[in-house]
Design brief:
Blueprint lengths: L4 E4 L14 E4 L8 E4 L2 E9 H5 L2 E6 L5 E6 L8 E4 L5 E2 L21 H6 L3 E2 L2 E8 L6 H11 L4
Length: about 160
């Protein structure tokens, strides 16, 4: 997330007779055309038709690492529906140092060495799909009658 600081201890400029300086990076999140980051979750908006919202639909989402997820909706998608896909968000950085790790180099401000992060079983936030339902601009009389027949309450 924004503001995360990553420190590489003793990896900076070296001067004779002095310890090497530290290198410090601060993370700044840039806007993405498809995803919005909310903590460890990634949120994307998907447009679906009214027909897709009322019947089973499958939404395809290309992840940041290039995989394509097919997310099925087995129930009606109402306006402002959100679908959570567990574990498809951003990696969650652990604040605990794994046993046996050497914390003298490449330490983040979270207290975890960067090489150790690569070897942990990573946990991830969720992918949250927010649906925008596109209604038709026009229905002819026959289509209206079919909808009325299909959706009228039973007596």
């Amino acid at each position: 997330p924004d503001g995360t600081k990553i420190r590489f201890e003793n990896e900076g400029d070296e001067t004779p007779g002095q310890l090497p300086s530290d290198i410090l990076f601060e993370v700044k999140t840039l806007p993405h055309p498809l995803f919005e980051r909310r903590g460890n979750d990634l949120v994307c908006r998907k447009r679906i038709t009214l027909l897709e919202a009322l019947t089973n639909c499958v939404t395809k989402v290309e992840t940041l690492d290039g995989r394509v997820l097919s997310v099925a909706c087995h129930s009606i998608v109402a306006p402002q529906t959100r679908k959570h896909v567990t574990g498809e968000g951003m990696p969650i950085l652990s604040t605990e140092l794994p046993r046996g790790s050497n914390s003298s180099r490449s330490t983040t401000t979270l207290g975890t060495t960067l090489p150790a992060l690569r070897h942990q079983a990573p946990k991830f936030g969720d992918l949250i799909i927010e649906y925008d339902i596109v209604f038709p601009n026009h229905l002819n009389q026959h289509q209206k009658q079919l909808l009325h027949t299909a959706l009228a309450p039973s007596r």
